[in-house]
Amino acid sequence: PAGYTTARRTLGEQEATVYVLQTGTELADASADFCLVYALAPSGNRGLYQYDAVEKTMQRYLAPTDLPTGAAAVEPEAGLLQTIAAFASAHRLPLICAAALLAAVLAAVLLVVLVRRAEKRRTAAAKTSGDALEQEIDSLVMEFRESPPAPPAPPAK
Questions:
Q1: S-S: 4 plus which of 8, 19, 44, 80, CB 3.0-4.6 Å?
Q2: Could you tell me which residues are beta bridge partners of residue 34?
Q3: Can you tell me the distance from the alpha carbon of 80 to that of 69, in angstroms, rounded to the nearest whole number?
Q4: Per residue in 16-50, pLDDT tens?
Q5: DSSP per residue over 51-101, as a string?
Q6: In 3-state terms, what secondary structure has residue 28?
Q7: By the 8 A CB rule, do 20 and 7 touch?
Q8: How many other C-beta atoms are found inside a 10 Å radius of the C-beta of residue 18?
């Protein structure tokens, strides 16, 4: 690749020909622990892979010329709000449907709760009025027991 020179390095337990950035550049000094190697992946794909000598890992290499440009380019450091806004504009109809469904479910739950509360209040009110009636009957019975009515007068002859 352009800007790289060949070198011999030990990768794992094997010595291989690798590509390293040309010396004397700021980028070469910063990436001394990395090199490119032409390899065959377990999936059968052949190509350039970047080897990390510190982590001892390898990943596919994407040359800078392969990066997207123009309108399709990904903005670096897109903020969270920008990411959410982009997602929302791309998925507007499904989001509206999901919000409507959520609102319908919440309305149904609220309706069930309100109906149950009303039933409890009606039951409590019926019980309270039934208890009051029972208390009034009990007080009349007690009053009757304490002072029974006078026996009827004998019939006049």
A1: 19
A2: 52
A3: 22
A4: 899 988 876 666 666 778 889 988 888 888 889 99
A5: EETTTTEEEE---GGGS--GGGSPPTT--HHHHHHHHHHHTHHHHHHHHHH
A6: helix
A7: yes
A8: 22
- DSSP 8-state class, residue 35: E
How many H-runs (helices) and E-runs (strands) does the chain carry?
3, 5
User: Tell me, what amino acid is at 79?
Assistant: G
Decide the pairing of beta strands 57-60 and 46-52: antiparallel
Please answer whether residues 38 and 48 qualify as being in contact, where contact means their C-beta atoms are separated by less than 8 angstroms: yes
Question: pLDDT per residue over 68-93, tens digit each?
Answer: 555 455 555 557 777 888 888 888 88
pTM of the model as a whole: 0.39
CA distance 20 to 11: 13
Q: Contact at 8 Å (CB) between 58 and 37?
A: yes
pLDDT digits (tens, 9 = 90+) for 11-25: 878 898 999 888 766
The answer to whether 53 and 36 are in contact (CB under 8 A) is no
Helix residue ranges per DSSP H, 9-63: 26-30
